[in-house]
Design a protein that fits this description.
By secondary structure, this protein is α+β, with helices and mostly antiparallel strands. The chain has two domains: 101 residues, Immunoglobulin-like (Sandwich), CATH 2.60.40.10; 255 residues, Neutral Protease, domain 2, CATH 1.10.390. Helices cover 43% and strands 22% of the residues. A hairpin with a 4-residue loop joins strand 11 and strand 12. The radius of gyration is 31 Å and the shape is elongated.
Length: 413
């Protein structure tokens, strides 16, 4: 009896030891065979929305899904936005996230976004999708394209000759720019030609009723409404805005922009001779001794039309003074100096030996001698203003450029 009891006690002890050992070992999770992506797509609703869709499955509940995206734009720092997707955990999921650009600001036609997803299940198994690039195109129109060098023009109305004339204007502007400043396009440029102002405004988020176009420097994209009966204005607008893009490419840096007078002066100078109405404003300002200082012209121009006209005219004259007095080599050196994040005064002093105040003194002497024999009256000026008013109003809008962006939390025109 004692022997049987001892054997029983030994068996119980061994059982308890085995049970204790089993309890102290980590519990192995039930592993999913494989996370699988069933669908990964994006839908463009230009210009308002970009919708991202994902379907995935696993043998266990999927608990975490995140969307990452980044814009294809010129930048010194790659900024990636992350979206945490809210959903009910399950073995099979269908999720969606819509980027409503009516709240954040929009993209220009022809831009693109790269995106990818991460999916994780309850066991910690994780999968990351291959990045996909989606084009944010204005699919409301059937676009044609014409490419020459680094410039591509897109249009959907009028014939090939219409686009050909605009391309010729673009190439002539680039040739003048190289001759005068040495600046040239470093990257591709896209120009979208809408058939009229209304079509253009339909491609923009909350446009003003007088918007005639927009330039998106970081994207290398210009969008302008050019009707066939307003072709001459369109050619000038393309020359003006193309200059802005090229100069931006030449001087892009993370710390400083160009002074406004230089940016607008080069763009206006590339168009060709100064418009008579603008020249009238400049001549009258010289006669009445009310020129705006160069230092003041380094900031955004006044919203008051008369001051804005004079600001453009003076900027043209300042660019003309530097180019004709000191040559192309010095202007190219100035642009290269600005690309090194130089201050306004510092760049002028390094290249020309004077700061903005010194430039102001030299230029005032130049422009006074140029117009001292002119006799301009207000009566003679008013008729010329009528034809220029619409052009300048459009140009003020065309000169709104998209600055550097911190994705998803800052967007500015």
């Amino acid at each position: 009896m004692i022997k049987k009891a001892s054997i029983f006690a030994l068996v119980v002890s061994l059982f308890l030891i085995l049970l204790s050992s089993a309890c102290t070992q980590p519990v192995e999770p039930v592993l999913a065979e494989q996370l699988a992506i069933l669908d990964n797509s994006a839908e463009v609703e230009f210009p308002d929305k970009l919708r991202f869709n994902l379907s995935a499955e696993s043998d266990v509940n999927i608990t975490d899904v995140r969307l990452y995206y980044t814009a294809d734009q010129e930048s010194y720092a790659q900024v990636t936005s992350e979206v945490y997707i809210k959903f009910v955990p399950d073995a099979t999921i269908d999720v969606q996230w819509t980027w409503d650009m009516r709240k954040t600001g929009g993209f220009p036609p022809g831009s693109s976004v790269e995106y990818w997803w991460t999916v994780e299940d309850i066991n910690g198994d994780k999968i990351e999708t291959t990045p996909v690039r989606v084009q944010f195109d204005d699919n409301r129109y059937s676009w044609q394209s014409l490419t020459e060098g680094k410039v591509t023009i897109y249009w959907y109305k009028e014939g090939q000759s219409f686009a050909g004339e605009l391309m010729l204007a673009a190439q002539q502007a680039l040739a003048r720019l190289v001759e005068d400043t040495g600046a040239y396009p470093k990257k591709l440029v896209k120009i979208y030609i809408y058939a009229n102002t209304w079509d253009l405004q339909g491609a923009m988020i909350h446009p003003q009723e007088w918007t005639g176009g927009a330039t998106f420097s970081r994207y290398g994209i210009i969008a302008i409404g050019i009707a066939s009966n307003n072709l001459q204005w369109g050619k000038s607008a393309i020359a003006h805005e193309l200059t802005h893009l090229v100069v931006h490419q030449m001087t892009f840096n993370p710390y400083n922009d160009l002074p406004r007078w230089l940016d607008e002066g080069l763009a206006t100078y590339t168009e060709g001779p100064l418009e008579p109405a603008l020249e009238g404003h400049l001549s009258l300002a010289v006669a009445e001794d009310r020129l705006i200082s160069v230092r003041s012209l380094s900031s955004p121009f006044s919203a008051y039309p008369q001051q804005a006209y004079l600001s453009y005219a003076q900027s043209y004259s300042l660019a003309e003074f530097l180019i004709t007095s000191y040559g192309q080599d010095k202007m190219l050196e100035l642009l290269n100096t600005f690309s090194e994040s130089s201050s306004y005064d510092g760049a002028l002093e390094k290249v020309y030996g004077f700061d903005m105040d010194g430039l102001d003194t030299l230029w005032r002497d130049y422009v006074t001698k140029q117009y001292q024999e002119d006799e301009v009256t207000t009566a003679a000026l008013l008729p010329a203003q009528t034809g220029t008013l619409a052009n300048l109003a459009n140009r003020l809008l065309l000169d709104l450029r998209l600055p550097a962006q911190s994705w998803a939390w800052r967007w500015a025109w």
